[in-house]
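Q: What does the assembled structure look like for these inputs?
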Amino acid sequence: MRISIAMSIAVAAAVAIAACSSVDLQNMNSVLGAAQSLAQATTEPTEQQEAEIGQQWAATLVGASPLVHDAAPERYLNRVGRWVASRSERPDLPWRFGILDSEDINAFSTPGGYVFVTRGLVVRLRSESELAGVLGHEITHVVRRHQLHAMRTASGIAAGANWLSQYVPQNGATGIVSGRLVGGVKEIMQRGLDKSDEYEADRDGVVLAARAGYDPYGLPGVLQMLQGLNPQDSSVALLFATHPSPGARLDALDRAMGTHFDVYAGQAENVARFQSVFAPASGQPAKKRKKNAA
Amino acid sequence: MIGKRNVLTAVVLASLAYAGAAFAASSGVIADRVPLRDAPNSDAATIANLEAQTRVVILQRKGAWLQVEIGSQRGWVRLLSVRTAVSDTAGDSGLGKVFAVATGQSTGSSVTTGVRGLDKESIRNAAPNPAELSKLDAWVVTAVDAGTFAQTAPALRAQTMTYVGANGESQ
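A:
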């Protein structure tokens, strides 16, 4: 066996030497080109490319569900979100946060720093620390480029090193809606990200919340709330189809958090500030509720 | 009389929900066998061992601990060892949505136009809407503004903490 392998190596080497002798310049160039593509495979997209992809991704999302057009809750969301993002490894991205006007319970993020929560989710949260936990999870997807990972996986092995060229215009043109990109992001939004990336986003999300001065048990609190919902409920259908079950996520967080977070468990929950913006379970921004209460 | 008591119960439950935020739900289930301790710390004496699936009443939260009651016993368990008892009575809120619209009660913000899902179908049919997206620009908060927000009461104190791995290893 060993001899036969040695023999084939010797034969292959001989063939290779023979081939080399007839290599012309054109062949040499194509070999170099392939090597270059291989190098690109390990190269992350530039921030400009991320922003380009993110913009079209986010435009598609608000095409599916418009934003809540109410400055007070939107501003508040951006304050909390930007503060949590500023504790991450990518504080200087052009972070933008928005509330989607949908009853469904979900949250999304895109490359480049767009983060969305649905109105259905935000009115079920009970504190700023829970919001910070959700945002920490989404911010992690951006910081760790989980969406780009999903795009690369979705583009298949055949696309190889040039996977990005399928989605981003190579001629430097910007602002052009790419049909392939929009099709790709729709696919990923329906299928979800890699499950291991979801678990990582939970682990990093609680750390980001703790770094930002919040009680890190906000995200587990949200997962507890999700676990209490009927999984057959249509408002959680997409969330549950694209994420591991809340129970599995809580089990994983239990293992990961251990006792490391105990010292931060007394940090801010900011229930009152949160509920002055989002009326608990009323389904409407607080402005109206205050008027009713007066 | 009964009505009054119900109102009182509702008030107590509501204030519980406020006080302990997520974890002061009325009951929970033990996820995996855990020690029930007589104080909220790992060095406290073990009163009993609770088996998986034990139903507990949650009394209060203190940091990473929950005070629970099982029959006549009271003690503390780690917060993440308790799971929400999955509701078997909750209906599809999709139905609730239809009800709210039918009875004219608005459950949404001023721009809501009835039942609107964000499901696979709406994603498939979505046309990119850059004009809607650009509305986010009006609400953007800079890093400096976010820092000011964090310093405004109730202030948030930034901490340094490394990420953790799947088994709690520091990264």
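The longest strand of chain B covers residues 55-62.
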